[in-house]
TrEMBL record, chain A:
Family, as annotated: Belongs to the binding-protein-dependent transport system permease family.
Membrane protein topology class: Multi-pass membrane protein
Ranges for domain ABC transmembrane type-1: 57-237
Keywords: Cell membrane, Membrane, Transmembrane, Transmembrane helix, Transport
Protein's UniProt name: ABC transporter permease subunit
InterPro entries: MetI-like (IPR000515), MetI-like_sf (IPR035906)
Species assigned in the record: Arthrobacter hankyongi
Cell compartments where the protein resides: Cell membrane
Bilayer-crossing regions: 62-82, 94-115, 121-142, 182-199, 219-240
Classification via CDD domains: TM_PBP2
Main localization category: membrane
Keyword Membrane attached: yes
PANTHER family, alphabetized: ABC TRANSPORTER PERMEASE PROTEIN MJ0413-RELATED (PTHR30151:SF0), ALKANE SULFONATE ABC TRANSPORTER-RELATED, MEMBRANE SUBUNIT (PTHR30151)
Amino acid sequence: MNRKLRLPVSAGGVAAALALWQLIATGPMAGGPLPTVADTFAELAGLLAGGAFWAALADTLVIALAGLAAAAAAGVVTGVLIGSFEPVRYATAAVLEFLKPIPPIVILPLVVLIFGPTTPMSWFLVFFGCVLPIIMQTVAGVHDADPVTLDTARSYGLGRVEILARVTLPSAMPFIGTAMRVAAPAALIITVVAGLLGGGPGLGRSIYQAQASGDYPVLYAYVVVLGVLGLAFQGASALAERRLLHWHASYREVLTP
Amino acid sequence: MTRTLATHHHPGMENSMELQENPVALGTAAARPRLEVTALSKTYGSGPNAKCVIEDLTFTVTTGEVVCIVGPSGVGKTTLLKCLAGLQPATSGTAAIDGRRIDGPPPEMALVFQDYSRSLMPWLTVRKNVRLPLRHLRLPAQEMNQRIDDALRAVGLDGSDGKYPWQLSGGMQQRVAIARALAYRPEILIMDEPFASVDAQTRFELEDLCLKIRDDFGMTILVVTHDIDEAVYLSDRVVVLGAKPARVLDVIGIDLPAPRDQISTRSLPEFAEQRTTVLSMIRKPA
């Protein structure tokens, strides 16, 4: 598609979605809990002017990003260990496969019981929800390292640690990158769920409070904020992936030699 | 007077002793091969499913020699190279450098793989690919850069060092792999069908580069190839392998004048003779 047309067409899509929302809110659902676009954005403007909103936003961002960073660090290190040593792989396979399908929300009551409705509670949920896919993908990436590339490194006398850092890990980067791109929006969602259902700090808790007091325009104003935040997370992680993996076949800009 | 005589006499005696010893020392050095493969066998698996790929291979390569290994495809040449490079253990027999058994990647050896596109790291630029094996040598920065520059210039890639391998043609990628081996300054260079997937013109250039490296750096070079003409053109000796399991059929000395030239050497009647000798050896029914 023509580059110049992309932005106006995207904007048109957004406008159409907002128009549909407005139609439903004023038509079939008039007087119901769904506020109009105008009411929602008026409340949104009010939120942006107040300090409490920004504090909640900051809480959400810090929890999501810190949880994601911890999950990335722990996930990559664990994944490399599991991928490099067969006994570790067999020792952990059953446990990881058991934990993988458990959504973080299932362990939320337990985590709230342990930590209370606090920042560590939300942070732990984010960590739990993100770390397993990152481990799994890192293991897959380590196994995907090309045997010829590894033999090359070995034949030049590179040591185990150097091969791990300079060959295996870069080989696994495309897998880790995909895992991170999926995990980044998930971290945000889990932070909000932890606030909404577990009372953790941040936008989730704000949404819960708006819902409890029946203030639907404010509730949907928060939903709009979350949507925009989700877009930003997705965009930032996709951009980071593209920069980090510019050499990978899926991102290459092939120059004529 | 006596003193003078004595001082004269003494070094003279030393000289004569050296003269007596030197031919012996030289003799052993010349007779002793750089790379020595003795009764090497490699079997994959065990029991009734065991597959013997290499059986009882014996040959040698002397310092400064270019030796080509030829044989039908799928004969286990790559397996042999992996054993020589210390990447996998032999089932029996030995490979040794200067009499020292190879049981891991030897530091004085570099290996150029057939599959250059998989052997180069796509996340590193040409320069960083060449630098990768030098890092653990802990060279001074200046020497490291000098080596990289020299190697890239030798293969005609100066100016491409900021590119990524996948931005280069196949022939240029293989040159990067060769430059990486050169910068490592190995004493023994082993190449696995290094020119198999490049066009004819590039192939000629890379063959001549191979001979130039030997002359410039005094390298000992072992090349696996399935191209008989290439083997005859490059080699001082050709090791002819027979198929399934691989064993040495013959070692043929190639007596062609140096320096070799793509046009004049290949049009010599001796070239055709040697080529026929090697080819009939390979095609002869076992």
